[in-house]
Amino acid sequence: MEVRFLRAEATMAFPRGRLLAVRGGRLYVLAPDGWDAVGGRRPEGARPISREEAVRWCRFEGFGEEVLEQVPLPG
Q: Which domain holds residue 7?
């Protein structure tokens, strides 16, 4: 199942934004302990990014790029 990545707008707590993923119509946010499901719609200001941009974000934030393969299946 395809995964699309987004980056939320920067905030004081998250200067580089948060990494989001959509899989099977379900929205997830990358937390320190893995992917958490998020209720509701995509946050205003979140923009789609490529997988390559998601890899760079992960490296900068100290996550291994393998987390991009661990987005849960919905359901």
A: 3-69
Token pair in block for residue 47: 């923009």
Number of domains composing the chain? 1
Output the six-digit token pair for 15: 């200067």
Question: Reduced to 3 states, what is the DSSP secondary structure of residue 71?
Answer: coil
pTM (predicted TM-score): 0.91
Geometric angle at alpha carbon 66, from 60 and 70, rounded to 5°: 120
Mean pLDDT of the chain: 93
48 is written with which tokens?
A: 């789609």
DSSP of 21-75, one letter per residue?
EEETTEEEEEETTEEEEE-SSPPTT-EEE-HHHHHHHHHHHT--GGGGG-PPPP-
